[in-house]
Specification:
Two copies of one chain form a homodimer. Chain A is an alpha/beta fold. Chain A folds into three domains: 58 residues, lambda repressor-like DNA-binding domains (434 Repressor (Amino-terminal Domain)), CATH 1.10.260.40; 119 residues, Rossmann fold, CATH 3.40.50.2300; 149 residues, Rossmann fold (3-Layer(aba) Sandwich), CATH 3.40.50.2300. Chain A has 13 helices and twelve strands. In chain A, the strands form two sheets. In chain A, strands 2-1-3-4-5-11 form a six-stranded parallel sheet, with helices on both faces. In chain A, helix 9 links the parallel strand 6 and strand 7. In chain A, helix 5 crosses helix 12 and helix 8 packs across helix 9. Chain A is elongated. At the A-B interface, helix 4, helix 5, strand 2, helix 6 and helix 7 of A face helix 4, helix 5, strand 2, helix 6 and helix 7 of B. Chain A binds a DNA duplex (16 and 16 nucleotides) through helix 2 and helix 4.
Chain lengths: 351, 351
DNA sequence: ATGAAAGCGCTAACAC
DNA sequence: GTGTTAGCGCTTTCAT
């Protein structure tokens, strides 16, 4: 099917070593020989096999990338960042998705090891106690986590606890006291757990009692009954909801409106991730924004350093924690005392 | 660094052939031998090298994927579809992005050829007259295009012309007559050109005169002056805009509102792509929706067939054209005669 | 049931 | 400047 270095050698009447030189160190060759070889290469559509090369032992210039899904723009963005940075260093990406499933994580990493990737960048469900990662450590395959937030391993992320605390503080500063946190599955995301800690911190710092977190199914059309129960009493219900990610926040907002509650007038909603499209919603989503592309980029930089690649600014240390920001948006509003709200509502209702 | 089949052989006191059999045809081995070998494999963290295997000549079980960018959810979605389908056939993805740049397209395909991918799935800027693809044809490397819309090559897409025509027809059926089409760069997208044809068809079929298309910079904050000029005369300005993709539509809607025009009251806007988040906008984006994940999935199925992979439903032909749908949304509204509009505005304005 | 050896496409050490 | 050759990790005859 493909022509080989031997075909080219035969075609141009030289040895395979000469062809190899034409490819790798053309300056060592006689100009005529070089021209002749190049002609043959052209004529035979020869394209050197990375396989043969890689077998000779050096690097494969392949990085494995493991992400839960591309349906979540957060990961699509960070993949974009990894791709940009790795391409610039002439590395290629081998992509595997896991759908947050640990069996798939295992298979992904096995595959990548078989492919002899030089290193890998991964986002895993649980970064703390993860046998797969321990094994990578043991065998010495360099890896960097992206988005996972742990001090035990090389991991590029925002400080999820502080980011959540800052987000919730923004709610508290607006006078909210009854803030409830909603999360997807904690089991699937160590980050969600840290965000809950941040929520707790903010509440306790303000002398408030945190609610237990409410875990929600991501794909539900309607809001869960448990949440509706929480919302039934207008005087005691939470005045603000903190959602562990933007997708959840959008689902919740839709559900709230469906249930006849106005956001942010009746209830404020804050998301987490800062996905770009959130800003395009008619009421722009308030969210704790994370620099996803930069997370990908920096994950690569860490990996590149571990791989011993030449570094543009070798002297500096590359951060593991990247800054988050609270994107105010329009789905959070100052808390209004029920009395004041009633008063305000009587005179002029429709504006 | 990595242990090899030879290490395992030495460790367990057998030949490398036996180790190879333990890996590939364990049933041929004596149970005890097998157990012994497996122990050694375990002990040495041995993981067979795909490189060595692939060198023996067969398939690499690698597919190259070439997309313009992952920042556009359309491609992230179709990549997701490719990934799901290819993984199911135990194929791995090698990802390259091109930013619509033909030099990068060239490098991407070269890289992928060097990696000896068994085939590739690509979305290119120009599918019709593309030397790169011609070369692939010549050397016999199987490929399938995704999203590109051409009869000259294997390409999975919606019928862009008809899809655009149907979308514009939906506007015309609502009484609009002055419909203007906005597009990103035509040079970057053969699809945009087909969509303009569809627009023309719809207009001409309705006995209307198509406008020239207006090309717009994607990253502009403000609307282009040329468009603003078009919009200056309330009585003659277009009453509906057809945008060649959703991203553009969202930018335009924002710009229109910024310019004091209400969508859809003053002007209707129709997008193209049907990106999921469009439905989440407060006024849900009206759009011609394309089944992106399915496009990826089907592109894989075509490729798989070309690769001679076992096929679940081998008998059936796999479609190249997938159905589009016009997602009505809320950014298009029936046309109202200026007179009627004036009349309607006088009595009761704020609702 | 197992081993010996050839060979896949390439690079690099060593000759000339 | 160019050729010869060994060997990278594996699979696969062909023997035994």
């Amino acid at each position: 099917m493909h022509s080989t270095i031997r075909d080219v050698a035969a075609h141009s009447g030289v040895s395979i070593a000469t062809v190899s030189r034409a490819l790798n160190t053309p300056e060592l060759l006689n100009a005529e020989t070089l021209a002749k070889v190049r002609e043959s290469i052209e004529a035979l559509d020869f394209m050197p096999s990375a396989r043969g090369r890689q077998l000779r032992g050096v690097r494969t210039r392949l990085v494995g990338v493991v992400v839960p899904t591309l349906a979540n723009p957060v990961f699509a963005e960070s993949l974009q960042g990894i791709d940009e940075a790795a391409s610039a260093s002439d590395y290629r990406l081998m992509l595997m998705t896991t759908a947050y499933d640990s069996a798939r994580e295992r298979r992904a990493i096995e595959t990548l090891r078989e492919q002899r990737v030089d290193g890998l960048i991964a986002t895993v469900a649980d970064a703390e106690s993860n046998p797969l990662l321990d094994e990578l450590d043991r065998i010495g395959l360099p890896y960097v986590l992206a988005h996972n937030d742990t001090a035990r391993r090389a991991a590029v992320s925002v400080d999820n606890r502080r980011a959540a605390r800052d987000g919730v503080s923004a709610l508290l500063q607006r006078g909210h006291k009854r803030v409830l946190m909603l999360a997807g599955s904690f089991a699937e995301s160590d980050r969600a757990r840290l965000r809950y800690l941040g929520y707790e911190n903010a509440m306790l710092d303000a002398g408030l009692t945190p609610y237990a977190p409410l875990e929600m199914d991501f794909n539900a059309e309607e809001l869960p009954l448990e949440l509706l129960a929480h919302l039934s009493d207008p005087l005691r219900r939470p005045t603000a909801l903190f959602c562990s990610n933007d997708r959840l926040a959008m689902i919740v907002i839709r559900g709230l409106r469906h249930a006849g509650l106005s956001v942010p007038r009746d209830i404020s909603v804050l998301g987490f991730d800062g996905i770009p499209l959130g800003e395009w919603l008619s009421t722009a989503l308030s969210s704790v924004a994370t620099p996803n592309r930069e997370i990908g980029r920096h994950a690569w930089r860490h990996l590149a350093r571990r791989l011993g690649l030449p570094d543009s600014d070798a002297a500096n240390l590359i951060p593991f924690k990247l800054p988050h920001s609270v994107r105010t948006g329009a789905t959070i509003a100052p808390y209004i005392e029920p009395a004041a709200r009633m008063a305000a509502l009587e005179p002029e209702n429709p504006a």
